[in-house]
Amino acid sequence: MQEQLVKISEKMFECQRVCNECFDACLKEDHVQMMAECIRLDRECADICAFAATAITRESSLSADLIALCATICQACGKECEKHDHDHCQRCAKVCLECADLCRRYA
């Protein structure tokens, strides 16, 4: 596997972990309804990152398509998380946007 794909899959697994942490922390916030879009995108982002990273490690012929999709979802999740002042959201936004950028550079 190419070194660049290894870096992308590692970033995707990191993004999955951070999104899951953000998702869990958002559910514990006082005004959870305000966090609904953040929670939804955290889940979607974590799921696609895990799936895409696994596909990359299997050297799937669809890896490029999944990387492009991952870039789109990570960008959306990062932008949503940036709207919230919570530390977990800001951390998530940073990693999601890094992942989106890495994926876009590959595509």
From TrEMBL:
Membrane-spanning intervals of the chain: none
Domain of life assignment: Bacteria
Entries under PANTHER family matching the protein: CYTOPLASMIC PROTEIN, CYTOPLASMIC PROTEIN-RELATED
Descriptive protein name: Four-helix bundle copper-binding protein
Organism: Carnobacterium inhibens
Lineage, highest ranks first: Bacteria, Bacillati, Bacillota, Bacilli, Lactobacillales
